[in-house]
Amino acid sequence: MAFERNAHNEVYASANYIVGMDGETIEYVPPEEVSYQGGAVARKWYTKDAERLWTGKARYVSYKGNSLDVWQPYYWLIGVEICHQKIDGQFTADAEYAVKELCVKLWQRWDMGDPVTHIWRHTDMTQKGLRGLKEELPCPRWWVEHPEEYEYFKMYVKAGICDDQDRRNARGERGRKDDFYS
């Protein structure tokens, strides 16, 4: 049904990572490359939080000789899709654990700021499921309908990052930081 709805609406999407119900994590699009997730067909659907990602940055960038309009968040985000079995969107324990660990690893690679303020749901970007469009559900539904679970998830990621930083500091290692917009 989702594919038919997306094909009908001419919506195409991808993600950098896909996490299965068993916790298997697949890198679908390398995080250094653009994946098309968290976007909206019309700019009016983007939230003020989403617009902060590109405010003050160049509106157009040159890529392989082409001028790209970068007002969409694709260029500033790493997208993770999490599989779930039921319509309520609840994740399996294995899937949620794998996503937490993936986020900690991503923060180890790039300093993306405080995960409590820099991990966003699709709905936070585009109001998905809140726009009144037929058959559209919030995304990820479980975290939108259970915000306490979402807050716990972000705090878990933050704790994992802090624990890792403490271990590296104790060994005298420096954290890594590459160019990344968050």
Note down, in words, how this protein is organized.
By secondary structure, this protein is an alpha+beta fold. The chain has one domain: Lysozyme-like (3-Layer(aba) Sandwich), CATH 3.40.80. Helix content is 37%, strand content 9%. It is built from 7 helices and 5 strands. The protein has helices spanning 2-8, 48-52, 93-109, 115-118, 122-126, 141-145, 147-171, and strands spanning 17-19, 25-27, 60-63, 66-69, 80-82. It has a 3-stranded mixed sheet with strand order 2-1-5, covered by helices on one side. The protein has a two-stranded antiparallel ribbon with strand order 3-4. Helix 3 (93-109) packs across helix 7. The longest helix is centred in the C-terminal third of the chain and has 25 residues, at 147-171.
How do the strands of the widest beta sheet line up side by side? 2-1-5
CATH topology: Lysozyme-like
Enumerate how many helices there are, as a single number: 7
Oligomer: single chain
Spatial shape = globular
The strand count comes to 5
- CATH architecture descriptor: 3-Layer(aba) Sandwich
Can you give me a brief rundown of this structure?
The chain is α+β, with helices and mostly antiparallel strands. Helices cover 37% and strands 9% of the residues.
Keywords:
182 residues, alpha+beta, Lysozyme-like, three-stranded mixed beta sheet, two-stranded antiparallel sheet, 5 strands, 9% strand, globular, disordered N terminus, disordered C terminus
